[in-house]
Amino acid sequence: MTQEQRSEAENGMDPTYSVRAEISREMVRLYKDQFGRGPTRARTEFAGPDIVISTLEDSFTPAERRMADMGETQRLRDTRTFFQHATEAEFREVVERLLKRKVRAFVSGTDTDRDVSAEVFYLDGAA
To answer: At what angle do helices 17-35 and 88-99 cross, to 10 degrees?
Structure first.
């Protein structure tokens, strides 16, 4: 974010800034609760009026890093995906509560080589 964008956000001129930051904070909290360690970087953006993408980086636990180092990337991906979808309702709730819109679809994925995850929310109804 540039200094100009930061200034606009602080002055309330960017109405999506605070909700994006709040979604990111909630995603970090969910990851920490779910995996025992939260990501060190998180960012949430709108990809048009009906899609929200949260990108979370550096969230692997030491054991998960070891799995990746051992080449067990598919096992790691499967484990992460299982846990993320096991708590799908919690992920959806955050976005629905903060945006006051129903989530019609949720997609979760992890790049196990780069320790980057994406939580994608497709929204129902009018923006």
So the answer is: 160
